[in-house]
Amino acid sequence: MKLATRLAILCGTALLAIIMANALNTLQTNRIGALYEQRQQAREAQVTALDVARDLQALLATYSQTLFQEDPAERAELSGEVDEWDRMIDEDLRAAARDTADPNTRNQYQQALTAWESFQRSYRSDMQNVRTAQDAAAAISQVDGDVALLENQLSQIDEETSRRVAEVNRAAGDSIRTSRAFLWTFVSGIVLVLGILMFFSSRNIHRTVTESALQNEKARRAKEIQAELMTDVQSVDDITAACGIILSGSAKAVGAKHAALYLQQPDEPGRYALTASYAFHRRKGLPNSYGLGDGLVGQCALEGVRIEVTDVPGDYVEITSGLGKSRPASLLLVPIKFESEVVGVIELAAHRLFSDDDTDLLDSIALGAGVALSAIESAQKTRELLTVSQAQTEELQTQEEELRAANEQLTQREDMLSAQNAELEETTEELRTQKEELRASSERLEAQAHSLEEKNEELQHLSASLEAKAEELAVSSRYKSEFLANMSHELRTPLNSILILAGLLTESDEPLNAKQHEFAETIQQSGKDLLNLIDEVLDLAKVESGSLYVDNEPITIAELVTFLERTFRPIAGDKGIEFLVSVDDSAPGQITSDYTRVKQIAKNLVANAIKFTDTGSVSVKFSGCVDTDGSPGDGYLSMAVVDTGIGIDEKDHHLIFESFQQAGRGSAKQYGGTGLGLAISRELARHLGGDIALRSALGEGSTFTCYLPVDSPAEPDAAAPAPARPAPARPAPARPAPAQQTADVDAPGDTADRFGPVDTSDVAWPQGDKPVLLIVEDDPTFARMLSGLAAEAGFDSVITASGRMALALAKQHQPAAITLDIGLPDMAGWVVLDVLKHDLATRHIPVNVVSGTEDDGRGMRMGAIRTVNKPAEISDLRSMFSSIADFLKPGPRHVLVAEDDANQRQVVKHMIESDDIAITCVGTGAQVLDELSGGTSYDCLVLDLGLPDIDGIDLIERIKDQLKEKRLPVIVHTGRELTAAETERLENLAAAIVLKNARSPERLLDETALFLHRVADDMPNSAREILANPRRVDESLEGNTVLLVDDDVRNVFSLGSALKRYGITVLPARNGQAGLDALGEHPEVGLVLMDIMMPVMDGYEAMRRIRAEPRWRHLPIVALTAKAMKGDRQKCLEAGASDYVTKPVDMDQLTSVLRVWLAGAPRGQRKPPET
């Protein structure tokens, strides 16, 4: 019988047995299912009886309360509850009496329904007749008697259904046991029959499978050997090395003890030379190369087929080793072919005869070797040709340069000769016409020539004197500009003290009268005005001294139009004048220049026009011109600002662009201003390669035209190239999602105030119905990806790479959420987060931190809802946007309060309760864990450490394990003294720690509002006043010690006074050396405020010495400088500063920086944050 027939019989028998077993099993399963359906019906009847009994007890209890209740309102409410219980019992009994499948149980329910209807009539009649307490007692006694029958009926139903369930369980168990016994017997018989059939069939199957497996193993081994050889060959680019690898692998694969490979010579086709060998012992008299038909090698190459020699003569070839030598049993020569051409021959010798498997393996190896060797040879030729080509290209380039230079020299010489010939012809003509005159007046001309020589000498002396004077004036002007640019320190240092002390006066704990408060505000505002004036003077000085750097980038005219429309149309409307912006067809689509400086020029010109125009209009027209003379063309952009204002007298035109000058003596008094705007604008335009022209007459308005080159000119020689910025100032990414906007300001470098005003007028904030996401990210590619994912999640987005712009946009537009990168070019992302969470206008906005460092919980402690680490997976980012969408859904925030003291629970609940907050109070750790594992998703946990069943710190760790990836802010609210070890553990586990004291209600309100992201305007007035109190103690700063190193007593006094208001201990030091001594004496110092320009030892040297000490390597140092020149910030950071603050010091900025460095990380881990 054939194998296939046996397998068919075996499979058919097994299939028939399975079908029979399945049929019997189906019958038994159906019976068991019917029994279980009966049990389910009995269970449902029993549950209904228990529900009715429970509801009956609730009705009786409520009925009793109703009879004894004298207050009509309360009695009416209780009567409503009695009616509700009555309705539920009546519905359950009627449904059971109607729908119960078992007849006996249905009959019992019908009897119970009859008893219920009797009891229902009785208690309702009694309720209406009760008037006194005695009547109520009698009615209750009567009801207790009436209800006994109904309770007895329900008890009988419970007993009957329990008995029915037990009977069904027993019947089902018997059926299951019978089914199992049958199945085991049937399966055993089938297994026995199948085993006998399989025994007889398995022998043939085993024999066939074994032979097939042997053949497959041989084929697999051959392919594996071939693949390994080809992989090794592909890893080298030298043909000799490749031949060695092929020969060695072939010999080892077939067990050959001697082998040689002969390769066709590229320069001598038809000749094969020894290229590689394996265990080869060279013999005298034998050649190293063979032609076609020479010897066995040549014959194998000629015929292109294998040659095998089995009867090898004794002296033909020897296989040698260190111990001896022997004669091989067989030789095998295999041709290596590529595209039908023999490119090589492999010769092998072995102590045994080569098998068919060996020859097949060698054929396949030779086939692959032909392809590989040809590829290596082609690559070698390509490299050689490339080298020759490169050498020839370089030589041609050299010759081309030499020819170009020679041609230029010949051209110049030809031009010179042509000019000289023309001059000679003219001179000859003149000499010919004047020959007679010269002859007659030679004496007079000689006298005149002598006189002219004397005058020429005088003119040369005068010219040299004028050039010297001009040089002196240029040097003097440059020194003046450099002096002004470097005066920043001396001007800003006293101004810093003025502004800080004025701010302290306005926020003083001691009340000021109205006049004193007005004086303090006037001092502060005047100081700010003086600071703006200083900045304008420094801008002009930097332009004149050549230290202003240009950052060129593409600027579209549409951007400039949008900027002007948004900035000045409201201002012109308020003044009652018309404002027009137009673009001529000749205007270029874009120019390449410094966007910030171009905006500054446009802003100055238009603002100046609006200021001096009381009626009429101001218009701006963009067009193209060939040069700064205004003639039509496309080399320059012309921006003409035309007004109908007072105009400028022609005699005053030369004064308009001078520093601190205005047209007419009354202009400054009537219209205000310093006279610097136009001077700065013209110098900026010239610095950008353009100019500004004026056309005006008194009483007829003015036209200021700014000409800027379309293509940016080369940088002036006087200024070094600007250093590359960490991120483009104004990225223009592709817009992957609708309503995505890009908004940035220039990286502030070293001069900008990081917390100063920011111009957001050119940001097109989305106006649709979708929530807007503010993406703060300096990597344009990653920002575009975030914007695309935000669009998928249903958000519009605005992108900015600047922390300053992010703060301004968040406060102005209130985005639905923010994603915040930590490594921003202008300020640390942690500082941005701190400012957002300490400003009542923005603290409610949910912030998602995107950080390149490991998440240590810092983001959550500072108020972020989530931290995503770079590099981020797409799934993590999608999860982040999904969680933002869930967070923004309307509904109350859920707070869990865990406090063992009932009074304290009520106090905490009263402090934070609101219409938009749902508070759940528990008293044990077990209840906390149960609540968190339930269906409610809590947004915050307020936890007392002294719970009766679980230690508070252990409970937090268990919560972290239970919630896994989900983040839950835990606010520890405790009155017990914490040890240092407990404090360290809690700082790594909890979001905040609030110790129970006089200020703990304020702290608790502050922390819960922060982590619940509550809108301050929606909170009660009392809570809003607590959060808005500027003198509220910041515990993240309180108790810290700061070393203030500054040689100016005024700064030490003003800054020290301001910092002491936050509970900070300030240690003063007059110079860098004194600061080092103070650090050695006071190890409790947590941060150093370091001035830069000091005697004895400046701030740079002091910071370098501090960083040289291992114990101070991670001590935060904040540099304070008033100079604010280009490169100062980088110079401070290279010297060892952790952060950088310019004078005059903004206290909000300084406190944010201090909070980041003093409280941003757990104690003992205050490493420099990512910037």
Automatic annotation (TrEMBL):
Transmembrane residue ranges: 181-200
Example of a GO MF term: phosphorelay sensor kinase activity
E.C. number: 2.7.13.3
Top-rank EC class of the record's enzyme: transferase
Biased composition (Pro residues): 723-736
Keyword presence, Calcium: no
Keyword Kinase in annotation: yes
4-aspartylphosphate found at: 821, 944, 1091
Record-annotated Response regulatory domain positions: 772-885, 894-1011, 1041-1158
Top-level lineage group: Bacteria
Basic and acidic residues bias (residue ranges): 429-447
Keywords noted in UniProt: Kinase, Membrane, Phosphoprotein, Transferase, Transmembrane, Transmembrane helix, Two-component regulatory system
Protein name as catalogued: Circadian input-output histidine kinase CikA
Source organism of the structure: Mycolicibacterium gilvum (strain DSM 45189 / LMG 24558 / Spyr1)
Lineage, broadest ranks: Bacteria, Bacillati, Actinomycetota, Actinomycetes, Mycobacteriales
